[in-house]
Amino acid sequence: xxxKVPFPHxxxxxxxxxxxxxxxxxxxxxxxxxxxxxxxDVLVYDDLNKREFAWEPRWAKxxxxxxxxxxxxxxxxxxxxxxxxxKLDRTRQS
Length: 94
Prior knowledge:
Layout: H1 8-16, E1 42-46, E2 51-54, E3 68-69, E4 72-78, E5 81-88
Antiparallel strand pairs: 1-2, 1-5, 3-4, 4-5
């Protein structure tokens, strides 16, 4: 049996983060610090939801390259997502 701790909310937070893994960039993706949000022919990877999606250039005005996650310039916190990489979308290139 675990001993009681004086601050149970801290103990609970430690349990919840025990299996934590930092965001990662899948193979084949470029780091977000090299991302040009005005491009319309790219896919970006959202590590929070583990999915890629087509980037829309109209979102460029809301994209802040300084909105890094935990000080990591290769991870961008965009609209509640953790963008960890980008790559060319060959299906959308003209």
